[in-house]
Design goal:
single chain; 623 residues; alpha/beta; Spore Coat Polysaccharide Biosynthesis Protein SpsA, Chain A; 2 domains; 9-stranded mixed beta sheet; 7-stranded mixed beta sheet; 17 helices; elongated
């Protein structure tokens, strides 16, 4: 009967055996239910025609790092706050979780029906644990007790629903709660995937062995990848799920103490699944839409700093391909203090017509605690043959791109000049160590700590190797093996490479790159740099630059990668979409420019024309 919702509190409905039989046959054994879908989640009422009362359970320990983002998405749920009560429990904190929750509660209590908070500050550690992420038996037991407390609280105040949302789960879809209610299931979870690319972690199991432990099945990945969409029966859900307490059967749900006939480990999700099966309550996971993201569990060896780094990495990686995560304004949230990792300057190159990239890069750098000297890139669209000649630039006449077999483009000249301006600035200000970043990059995990350690190693290496440049991100073009630099853990001798995504440059390197006098026979910057460190697959091309004394290394593995590759959705090239240096300004050129302007906003068009008027004089003064 529970499947139909007939046995609900405060309402009695009679049905014939034949009707019940038909419904049970429709449910079947395929573990898939047809969801209401559409816009049905926009209006959800209980049996009395009233908006249901929900108790939201927040259980937090050492979550100072996630709370601003987590609470931001809780506030954003599209559900009447006058019908949401919140029950907060927190204990064993080594950080400022309790303070942040109190701050938020103070400001949010007028928004919600009720907020109740229970905090225990007497203990910061579990006596038998080795660290904040060590799940000892006493911690499992405590979490089960906290879940039970929330269930008891929901029953005592008589709410319609109990909504568990763990603090490392972020409900990006504001319709999540209404969508869950619309499924009319006793227990249902929104499918939430982990942030990390390639991970298979989520908040449900598709299989469980006879001992109640996880078992991989063939159904898992089609559901995880949303190749199959719907509301599926599963043996286990956790982290975020909704319990409809209007069903009498939910009186049998329990977390702690474990039932007398339960012989498994004390684990809240295992006990809950056991009592649900015993009460004949089916568990469901909904993947009809994208509902949110979650962090993968920390390993026992990780400390709170490691946890913060993991969350920062998740936010930055998410931001590279999606809208930045939001944060609440109701609690204190300060970005990390500025720490430029030992560099005299960090440069970030960005085109004025790419404000989206600029915004994401600046937000990413802020999350990392890095301050960037924003460098306006020279836009190849603003360059003309006359402007290039005025600057004394002579593109190499017989150069052809080795893969596209075309001359250099105006975009490539703009790219070269963007890096050239930085090299000139390094020399003018006698900066010993700088980091150069382009704006279309993705940082690898734990970037700050890796970079800090790398720079220490690189400075120590100067006693033996007077290096000039270290690639942080690149595309390796040489098939030859790159030899590790003796006495280092992270450095190899760089061979022919493309891309100037990210690199460390010393003052000596900037001087050598300028001394190569590239304006007399300009080639793309990622061809020029390998030639200057004497490693290129075109010996004739190398011979045109007789002084090739740059000493270049590369970190291995790399710390920076491009956000998009050629052919990826969202890939945009700012060098290929421009005319070549020897292309006549024919009708095809005009048509290409017109197409550019049709795709650009009026502000971008005006900015381009302004740049065309000033670019020559601005650059001429720097040469």
């Amino acid at each position: 009967m529970e499947i139909l919702g007939f046995c609900t509190k405060g309402m009695t409905v009679f049905c014939s055996i034949s009707i019940c039989t038909v419904v049970l046959l429709l449910v079947g054994a395929n573990c898939e239910e047809t969801t209401n879908g559409g816009n049905d989640h926009l209006e959800v009422l209980n049996e009395l025609g009233q908006t249901p009362h929900v108790l939201l359970s927040i259980i937090a320990r050492n979550e100072e790092k996630t709370l601003p983002t987590y609470l931001g998405y809780i506030e954003r749920l599209d559900y009447p706050k006058s019908h949401i009560s919140i029950f907060i429990q927190t204990d064993h904190n080594e950080d400022k979780t309790e303070q942040r929750l109190k701050e938020w509660t103070k400001h949010a209590k007028l928004m919600y029906r009720n907020i109740k908070m229970q905090a225990n500050s007497s203990e910061k550690f579990y006596p038998d644990s080795k660290g904040p992420n060590d799940w000892v038996v006493t911690r499992y037991e405590q979490v089960a007790k906290l879940r039970q407390n929330a269930l008891d609280e929901a029953r005592s105040i008589g709410v319609d629903y109990l909504f568990f949302v763990d603090c490392d789960n972020f409900l990006l879809n504001p319709n999540t709660l209404k969508s869950l209610m619309a499924q009319r299931k006793t227990v249902v979870a929104p499918m939430i995937r982990a942030f990390e690319n390639g991970t298979t972690y989520s908040n449900y199991w598709c299989g469980m062995d006879e001992n109640g432990y996880y078992e991989r099945t063939d159904d898992y990945f089609p559901m995880l990848k949303r190749e199959k969409k719907g509301c599926f029966e599963v043996p286990m859900i956790h982290s975020t799920y909704l319990i409809d307490l209007q069903y009498y059967s939910t009186d049998n749900l329990q977390y702690y103490p474990p039932p007398q006939d339960y012989f498994g480990e004390v684990d809240d999700i295992l006990i809950f699944a056991f009592t649900a099966r015993k009460a004949e309550i089916k568990l469901f996971v909904l993947n009809q839409e994208e509902y949110g993201q979650m962090l993968t569990p920390s390993t026992p060896e990780m400390n709170l700093e490691d946890d913060q780094i993991a969350f920062t990495d998740a936010k930055i990686d998410w931001m590279a391909y999606n809208k930045p995560l939001i944060s609440t304004n109701l609690t204190n949230h300060r970005p990390p203090p500025i720490d430029n990792l030992g560099f005299d300057e960090i440069y970030m190159i960005n085109l004025a017509r790419r404000p989206d990239r600029r915004k994401k890069m600046l937000m990413s750098l802020e999350e990392l605690g890095l301050y960037a000297n924003e460098q306006d890139a020279v836009d190849g669209r603003t360059l003309t043959k006359e402007i290039v000649e005025e600057m004394g630039i002579h593109p190499m006449k017989d150069f052809k791109d080795p893969y596209l077999e075309r001359p250099m483009t105006m975009g490539e000249i703009g790219c070269f000049l963007s890096h050239w301006n930085i090299w000139k600035d390094v020399v003018a200000n006698r900066l010993e160590y700088v980091l150069v970043l382009e704006d279309d990059i993705r940082f690898e995990s734990d970037f700050n700590r890796k970079m800090r350690n790398l720079l220490i190693e690189a400075k120590e290496l100067l006693w033996n190797v007077k290096w000039d440049l270290i690639y942080i991100g690149r595309k390796r073009m040489s098939q030859s093996e790159e030899v590790r630099v003796a006495g280092t853990e992270h450095l190899v001798w760089a061979k022919y490479s493309y891309w100037t995504l990210a690199y460390i440059l010393r003052l000596s390197g900037a001087r050598k790159l300028i001394a190569g006098d590239p304006f007399k026979q300009m080639i793309p910057v990622d061809e020029y740099i390998p030639i200057m460190f004497n490693d290129h697959n075109d010996a004739e091309l190398m011979s045109k630059f007789p002084t090739r004394n740059l000493i270049a290394l590369s970190v291995y593995p790399l710390y920076v990668y491009p956000t998009h590759y050629v052919g990826d959705e969202g890939y945009v090239s700012d060098t290929e979409g421009t005319i070549t240096v020897y292309q006549k300004e024919t009708n095809s050129t005009s048509e290409n420019s017109a197409l550019d302007e049709r795709n650009d906003s009026p502000e971008v068009i005006a900015e381009r024309r302004f740049q065309q008027r000033k670019v020559s004089s601005r650059l001429q003064g720097d040469l």
